[in-house]
Amino acid sequence: MTNRVVITGLGVITPIGNDHTTFWNNLIQGKSGVGPVTRFDTTNYACKIAAEVKDFDPLHFLDKKEARKMDRFTQFAVAAAKMAIQHAELDMSKEDPTRVGVYIGSGIGGLGTLEEQHKTLINRGPRRVSPFFIPMMIANMASGQVSIITGARGPNSAVISACATGTHSIGDAFKIIQRGDADVMIAGGAEATILPMAFAGFSSMGALSTRNDDPQKASRPFDRERNGFVMGEGAGIVVMEKLEHAMQRGADIIAEVAGYGMTADAYHLTSPSPEGEGAMRSMLRAVEDAGLQPEDIDYINAHGTSTDLNDKFETMAIKNAFKDHAYKLLVSSNKSMIGHLLGAAGGVEAIATALTLKEQVIPPTINYENPDPDCDLDYVPNEARKARVRAALSNSLGFGGHNATILLKAYEDA
C-alpha cells in the first residue's frame, strides 16, 4: 500500500509577489510582472525586458553573515522554504528530523556568483577569489542550506533538469513520501539568472522576446504574435506530507499530489520533439500513476512559454493525449504574467495549480489577443474563470528534452 501525499505549505518569491497570497491575488487579477531590466545595462542587448523579483530583502529571512554566503537563488530558496514551513505550521522541534527531507533544484544555479568571481579572478588575481565561491555557486546548495537551516536530516537531493527542475523536484519528493522513506518533504525550485551572461546566451539563441516597447504584453503564450519567452526569477517551495502525518497534527490541506510523469524527448538540445510526443507521454503517465482516466482532468497549467514551437507542440501534445476531451479542458499559462522562471517555474506553477484547486478559480492567460490556428484550445484568455476543478496537471518541459508532469487533486477525505 502506498501513502497518500498532500500539500500543506506554500512559499513563493515571484515577480508578482513575495508571498503566496499576494502572488495568487495578482495572478488571478492578470497582473504582469514584466518590465525593463534594472539589474544591469541592456544597451547592447536585443532584449531589454524581464520579470524581475521586486522588493526582496534577504535580511528579512537571514542574518547578514548567512546571506553573504549565499547566491541570490539560494536566498530565494531559503526565503520560500521558510514561508512554506510557516504556512504549514510545521514545528520542526516536534518532528523526527530524519523523517523530514529537502528536494530543491535549480536549472542553472549560482551564475551570479560565477560572473562576480570570474571578474575578481581576472582583475585581482586568484588569491582574491572568495573561499565561498564554490559552495555559493553549485546548484545543490539551495537544498543543502535549507536542510542546514531547518535541521531536516531525511532524504536530500537537488534536481538539475533545466526548465523541468521544479516539477521533477516535487514529483521525486512525492514519490519519496509515497513509498515511505519520509513523512515530510520540502520541495521545489529556485532560480536567479537575470544576469548579463544568461541574457547574452538566450539572446544569441533567439529565445527571448524583443517586445521591448511594451514589456507587459511581451509574454503571450499561445497567441499568434508570440515571439519568445521573457526571463523571470524566483522560487516556489511546497511542504508535502504523508496524509496521516498531516491529519495527526491537524494541518490545513491545500491539495493532494496524486500522480507524476516524466519522459525524455531524445530529440534535440532545445527544440521539443515533433507534435510534443514526449510531453504527451509525460501527461498520460501522470494520469495513469494517479489511477485516473484522461477525461478526469479538468485543467492543465501549461508550460506555455510564449515561444513558437513550445506552444504549438504542447497544444498538439494535449490534443493527442486527451483526444476529444482536449476541447473540454481549461488550459492556461502562468508565464504570461510571471515570465519563465526556468528551474523555479515548476515549483511556482505547482503552487498556482494547488491554489486553483483550493479556490476553484483558473488563472488567465493574459495577452491572448490573436488566435493561432495551431493553438485552438480554451486557454482561459485574459480573465480568470471560476470553474469546477477536481484534478489538474502542471507541465514543465526543459532543454535537453526533459518532460515532467505532476497531477494534483482537490483534497477529499477518503
TrEMBL record:
User: What are the record keywords, sorted?
Assistant: Acyltransferase, Fatty acid biosynthesis, Fatty acid metabolism, Lipid biosynthesis, Lipid metabolism, Transferase
Regarding protein family, the annotation reads: Belongs to the thiolase-like superfamily. Beta-ketoacyl-ACP synthases family.
Q: Which Gene3D superfamilies would you find in this protein's record? A: 3.40.47.10
What the entry lists under NCBIfam families is as follows:
fabF (TIGR03150), PRK06333.1 (NF004970), PRK07314.1 (NF005589)
Q: Which reaction is the catalytic activity of this chain?
A: (9Z)-hexadecenoyl-[ACP] + malonyl-[ACP] + H(+) = 3-oxo-(11Z)-octadecenoyl-[ACP] + holo-[ACP] + CO2; a fatty acyl-[ACP] + malonyl-[ACP] + H(+) = a 3-oxoacyl-[ACP] + holo-[ACP] + CO2
Its EC number(s): 2.3.1.179
* Annotated metabolic or biological route of this protein: Lipid metabolism; fatty acid biosynthesis
Does the entry feature the keyword Chaperone, yes or no?
no
Taxonomy, superkingdom: Bacteria
Function noted in UniProt: Involved in the type II fatty acid elongation cycle. Catalyzes the elongation of a wide range of acyl-ACP by the addition of two carbons from malonyl-ACP to an acyl acceptor. Can efficiently catalyze the conversion of palmitoleoyl-ACP (cis-hexadec-9-enoyl-ACP) to cis-vaccenoyl-ACP (cis-octadec-11-enoyl-ACP), an essential step in the thermal regulation of fatty acid composition.
Question: GO MF annotations for this entry?
Answer: 3-oxoacyl-[acyl-carrier-protein] synthase activity
InterPro entries according to UniProt: 3-oxoacyl-ACP_synth-2, Beta-ketoacyl_synthase, Ketoacyl_synth_AS, Ketoacyl_synth_C, Ketoacyl_synth_N, PKS_Beta-ketoAc_synthase_dom, Thiolase-like
- GO biological process annotation, one example: fatty acid biosynthetic process
Per the record's keyword annotation, is Transport included, yes or no?
A: no
**Would you tell me the protein name for this molecule?**
3-oxoacyl-[acyl-carrier-protein] synthase 2
* UniProt xrefs under PROSITE patterns: KS3_1 (PS00606), KS3_2 (PS52004)
Which organism is this protein's natural source?
Paenactinomyces guangxiensis
Give any Gene Ontology cellular component. Answer: cytosol
Catalytic positions? 163
Ketosynthase family 3 (KS3) domain sequence ranges: 2-410
